[in-house]
């Protein structure tokens, strides 16, 4: 791979929204830029910084604000804006004074205020979308009035996308009562995006071809994903193993030792990411469904969710299951014992499963997950989706049936084959000369010339 001359003066600052699912892809992108000879500083909150090494694979990590003690995502969006928009210009000025002037600010697309700061300071501004291009296109259509809210009818047609049921749209769109203010905050990312010099999506061209083409006809967007450390995509490589950040403490040895003793494709890996909260009844049905499927299962239940586990589920000690608070997900998905991923379809989890060739049982909870689940089943054909019953939960029989569909029989084999097809294409995209690699190279060479 072509290496650029290391130029300490070419300094990029990267600022993700400070939650796990947004930091992971932006940190990986930072590492990729650092590996190409740029000086890269990632800014995050003090407590997140404590979970990271101060320098991880060439990326310098710095704290931009104190810990933000807030009760909701809406409040976090607002609080981070207030705090970080004050300190960001000061930090950038400090770098300039200490001989490391900043040329470019890569900001999480949910923080459009950061682009205003970049422009005021005369910096190149790059917006980073941590969600699927399809999801970006849906929000873009709403923001431009091409799709009006409240929605009417049962389906919607959007350029570059298959026909979508209302419930396939992001939940902020069809369930505005539950999330009255979130949709506005999410749409805000388009308010100034015309002024961005670069717009990155953590996806790859083959995966979302039509919608990527449509978005590219609106803005000069660039796909740069999947942002997964290359050693997971190519077993011959030995670069760094982690995402470099876990806001939760993983039980790595316990998970990997347990998986090592299981046969190929015999384990269902279950996780709902870093934010989703399942109700107690749903946890009960899930536990029963997993037991009924009669497969081994590795279930991530965050400590804050632990009290909802049914008391009769002695999964930790049962022969069939292991319950942990957090795991090294990429290592788990890469393990040959894992046959299926029961997932909430957060964008990172979806992309990770596809890139590592693991078929899915999609159980979306909120935000973009409903749209991702639609694509997993109908477009990428790499999984099945559970049906929600009249009580608004997914029953144990349904869970059992869906798991068996993925783990067993001809259908299971077909889903696995499809998942592996995406794994091959994901690797091609990030390999030297692949679509995402070329886009990153192009960005780096232009930044080095500014
Ligand atoms: C959030 C949103 O919920 C999601 O829909 C959006 O697309 C991104 O932001 P989150 O719910 O945490 O993210 O899900 P996801 O996007 O899947 O990100 C979770 C990350 O944590 C993944 O990178 C995954 O590998 C990692 N993880 C998860 C672990 O490392 N260990 C675990 O045990 C669980």
Automatic annotation (TrEMBL):
Keywords: Glycosyltransferase, Transferase. The lineage of its organism: Eukaryota, Viridiplantae, Streptophyta, Embryophyta, Tracheophyta. It comes from Nyssa sinensis. InterPro entries: Glyco_transf_N, UDP_glucos_trans, UDP_glycos_trans_CS. It comes from the Eukaryota. Residues 9-59 form the Glycosyltransferase N-terminal domain. GO terms for molecular function: quercetin 3-O-glucosyltransferase activity; quercetin 7-O-glucosyltransferase activity. This is Glycosyltransferase. The keyword Glycosyltransferase applies. PROSITE patterns: UDPGT. Signal peptide: none annotated. It holds the Pfam family Glyco_transf_N. PANTHER family: GLUCOSYL/GLUCURONOSYL TRANSFERASES (PTHR11926), UDP-GLYCOSYLTRANSFERASE 74E1-RELATED (PTHR11926:SF1560). Its EC number is 2.4.1.-. Belongs to the UDP-glycosyltransferase family.
